[in-house]
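Tutorial, part two.
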Amino acid sequence: MTKLAQWLWGLALLGCTWAALATGALGLELPSACREVLWPLPAYLLVSAGCYALGTVGYRVATFHDCEDAARELQSQIQEARADLARRGMRF
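Running the prediction step on this input gives:
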């Protein structure tokens, strides 16, 4: 099972549970405080997931490691390509 399928199954399970509780399909009599929290719960979860995603991306960008050897190799390849193109008559 792929990671996407796992997430979709989890979201479907949570969505069905939320819908059953919110519509009263299970016949449970929830206190009013629970019902007040239950209705906006998907929006809260969506905002929380967005904050987590932004935090993860920010952390990964902040701790990104530079590859100095690869950068030097790439610069030398660029210089070789420029020299080859200049030899063939192209001007920069």
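The chain has a mean pLDDT of 92. In part three we will examine how such features are distributed along the chain.
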